[in-house]
Amino acid sequence: MLRIGAHMSIAGGVSKAVDRAVAHGCEALQIFAKNANQWRGAPLDAAEVRAFRRRIDETGIRPVVSHASYLINLATTFPVLREQSIAAFIDELDRADTLGLLGVVIHPGTCTAGTEDDALRLIANAIRQAFRARPRRRTMVLLEHTAGQGRTLGHQFEHLAAIIGHLRSSARVGVCLDTCHLIASGYDIVSERGYQETFTAFHRVVGLERLKVFHANDSKKPRGSRVDRHEHIGRGCLGEEAFRRILHDPRFAGLPMLIETEKSARTTKAGSIETDPLDMKNLEILRRLRVR
User: Fold this and answer.
1) What pLDDT is recorded for position 267?
2) Domain span including residue 235
3) What 8-state DSSP symbol labels residue 143?
4) Would strands 173-178 and 140-144 be described as parallel, antiparallel, or unpaired?
5) Is 258 left (phi over 0), alpha (psi -120 to 50) or beta?
6) Dist CA 131 CA 175 (whole Å)
């Protein structure tokens, strides 16, 4: 079976994210390894790193991934932004490696000039530069399939395959599929036929062995809208059946399915381990679908 989990806050220290995951009954976990809306983050506290890794071992929560900063754009042609993006990306990989994570989920990038092919090469070149800077790291780069807003890349399986191909099919590169992004970008995972065709195409173009993570989000917008708007599980254009199919698909056994649905309005306090009622509801729906 897939391992159900969520994105959890690191407020109060990275180890607090593990405690929050336990409180919500998570089997897998995603975090930000620093503030996602800032270029630079404070160094990871050594005691917190030890506590994080100890709690992961104690709880058996796995895998754990981080999500890279939204500021990073590996496809940009602007020199200053490109330099900032690559430096921030390397920092994300360093943090993930220090924490012992499976990998870093990252949106491939947004084309700022030239053709899509040019931008895909720029993305691959940035990842290659990061790999050369950290040749002994094991942390994976997990390219997230996107909804396709504007000139965002990664909304076609062919985009992901091209980046991987430019990197000579490096074993350090995997894929994260987001259910909201799939339908928003035009892939039908709602109907039985569409579901089979979508994953047959993914296997043909990218390869199922590259798939390492699912983001479980319903979609406020319909198929082909190319608008990224997450909705609570079962309340959007996907409905519960699409999630049930994934949860019962033996090809995905053992993979994490992580919710990124809207949380309650209250702010997570630094030391608080309170459960979020919206997270609890979405996780419970997935658990129910998994045993149906």
Assistant:
1) 66
2) 3-291
3) E
4) parallel
5) beta
6) 17
Compute the distance between CA of residue 245 and CA of residue 162 in angstroms, rounded to an integer: 28
Token representation of residue 288: 């129910």
- Residues (pLDDT < 70) of the chain are 267
Name the token pair of 60: 């058996």
Q: What is the DSSP code (8-state) at residue 4? A: E
How many other C-beta atoms are found inside a 10 Å radius of the C-beta of residue 157?
21
The structural domain count of the chain equals 1
Pairing of strands 256-259, 3-7: parallel
The tokens of 105 are what? 């989920």
- Please tell me the total number of residues recorded for the chain in this structure: 292
Tell me what pLDDT residue 265 has: 79
* pTM score, whole prediction: 0.97
Q: How far is CA 115 from the centre of its chain?
A: 26
Sign of CA dihedral 206, 207, 213, 214: positive
The CATH number assigned to the domain holding 78 equals: 3.20.20.150
Number of helical (H) and strand (E) elements in the chain, helices listed first: 9, 12
